[in-house]
């Protein structure tokens, strides 16, 4: 300890001496610069460097004694920042998930609201008053459908058992005319009804999908009847909440009329039947002996002829078994053909220099030439399997083979001469000779026709007596009692 204190005192003295020498040198340089105009610091550069180095070496222990050993400031390492970073990352993920869920819920609500507005505007058409107004449906389609929108209508067919449902697709340009055709063919109102059970899911690109399996399309007709088509509704909305695909899959349809109309149509027949019963009711003054005899009493008819049944009922407003009007069915068939011709239209637009007929000819030629080089290999010519066009109507496919050489149909069979059937020969009857006169073996009843049996095929073979004459009102006429058939007694020669 004493040696360390002595070393520190010596260093302190050296530092004081260095300071005093430095101060004296600086004062001398200042005086010389003021007197002789010499530049300050030119000759003292080496001395200054040595003195500064000595001062720095001497001052470090002196400064370290009162303050103690220097301590390094703690630097933030990666291990100390991991919990904070993880917490921040988790908070960011949770925030983004919450925002996505909120946006999804908002999108679901907006799409459901859009679908409800679609139903309201569909049923808000003025009907027959504005059936010639196509502008209403133009604005309707522009408001709810995307320019790439498609209405897919699946029609349920009921009159043919094995017939599958038919599906039609109506593109965006044809949608206004599709809705207009309904109201131009007797429909006065349309309703889209969705019951509880709507499901949804988000789609890529900020789209949304809504589906309801308990939906109905109700068509109200001007005749007073209405049709309810039940099925599934599916709607695909894009990011702008417009419909890209609206699909209605019909599972069943039923047409209804009002109860009042049915009663009014059935009244004439009902009144005539009541009058007939009144005329033909049994008279209480009639003698009981008349009823015992079982004679059929002639029926009386009312003065008025019977009316036709249910002639006043309104006729069906839809095509039989399809659930759509005849005009809508024709429109769907035309739309299907136009949809199949889209490649032809695209070919015509890509060749503006061609006219319609020239474009059609070139397109057909291109289509006919395309299968010849399918997959880079020419297709074989001619049909691979027999077709009905190769044989004339009513001819067997084996007929051309009958003319081939060596065919068994041309040459005779080798066993033909050995398989001749024996000729027909006259044989004498066992009961007599061929003479015209009667013989002892000839039956006296052989020249008579046999009377057909009166026993029916449905009855069993019992020897019950045959029934009597015809019956009237379930009562058999009185006549001769039936006699049982008895076997004839054979006359034997006396012995």
TrEMBL record:
It comes from the Eukaryota. Residues 78-89, 419-440 have a biased composition (Low complexity). Residues 486-495 have a biased composition (Basic residues). Residues 67-77 have a biased composition (Pro residues). Residues 58-89, 280-311, 371-495 are annotated as: Disordered. This is Transcriptional adapter 2. It comes from Colletotrichum spaethianum. The lineage of its organism: Eukaryota, Fungi, Dikarya, Ascomycota, Pezizomycotina.
């Amino acid at each position: 300890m004493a040696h360390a204190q002595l070393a520190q005192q010596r260093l302190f003295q050296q530092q004081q001496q260095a300071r005093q020498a430095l101060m004296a040198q600086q004062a001398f340089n200042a005086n010389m610069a003021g007197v002789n105009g010499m530049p300050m610091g030119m000759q003292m550069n080496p001395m200054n460097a040595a003195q500064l180095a000595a001062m720095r070496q001497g001052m470090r222990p002196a400064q370290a004694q009162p303050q103690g050993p220097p301590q390094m400031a703690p630097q933030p390492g990666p291990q100390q920042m991991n919990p904070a970073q993880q917490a921040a990352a988790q908070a960011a993920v949770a925030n983004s998930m919450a925002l996505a869920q909120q946006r999804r819920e908002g999108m679901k609500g907006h799409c459901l609201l859009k679908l409800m507005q679609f139903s309201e505007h569909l049923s808000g058409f003025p009907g027959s008053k504005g059936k010639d107004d196509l502008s209403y449906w133009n604005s309707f389609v522009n408001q709810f459908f995307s320019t790439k929108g498609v209405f897919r209508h699946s029609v349920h067919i009921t009159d043919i058992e094995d017939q599958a449902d038919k599906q039609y697709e109506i593109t965006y340009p044809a949608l206004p005319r599709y809705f207009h055709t309904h109201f131009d063919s007797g429909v006065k109102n349309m309703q889209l009804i969705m019951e509880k059970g709507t499901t949804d899911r988000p789609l890529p690109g900020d789209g949304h999908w809504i589906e309801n399996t308990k939906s109905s399309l109700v068509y109200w007709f001007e005749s007073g009847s209405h049709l309810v088509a039940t099925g599934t509704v599916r709607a695909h909305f894009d990011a702008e909440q417009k419909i890209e695909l609206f699909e209605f899959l019909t599972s069943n349809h039923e047409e209804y009329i009002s109860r009042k109309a049915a009663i009014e149509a059935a009244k004439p027949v009902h009144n005539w039947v009541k009058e007939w019963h009144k005329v033909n009711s049994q008279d209480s003054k009639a003698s009981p002996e008349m009823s015992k005899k079982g004679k059929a009493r002639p029926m009386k008819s009312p003065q008025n002829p019977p009316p036709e049944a249910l002639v006043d009922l309104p006729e069906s407003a839809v095509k039989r078994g399809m659930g759509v009007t005849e005009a809508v069915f024709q429109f769907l068939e035309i739309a299907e053909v136009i949809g199949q011709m889209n490649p032809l239209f695209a070919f015509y637009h890509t060749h503006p220099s061609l006219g319609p007929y020239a474009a059609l000819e070139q397109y057909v030629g291109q289509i006919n030439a395309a299968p010849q080089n399918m997959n880079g290999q020419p297709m074989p010519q001619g049909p691979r399997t027999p077709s009905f066009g190769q044989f004339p109507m009513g001819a067997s496919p084996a007929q051309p083979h009958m003319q081939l050489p060596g065919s068994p149909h041309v040459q005779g069979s080798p066993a033909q001469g050995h398989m001749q059937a024996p000729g027909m020969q006259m044989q004498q009857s066992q009961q007599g000779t061929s003479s015209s006169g009667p013989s002892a073996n000839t039956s006296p009843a052989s020249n008579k026709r046999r009377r057909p049996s009166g026993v029916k095929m449905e009855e069993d073979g019992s020897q019950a007596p045959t029934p009597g004459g015809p019956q009237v009102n379930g009562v058999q006429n009185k006549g001769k009692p039936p006699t049982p058939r008895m076997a004839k007694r054979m006359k034997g020669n006396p012995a």
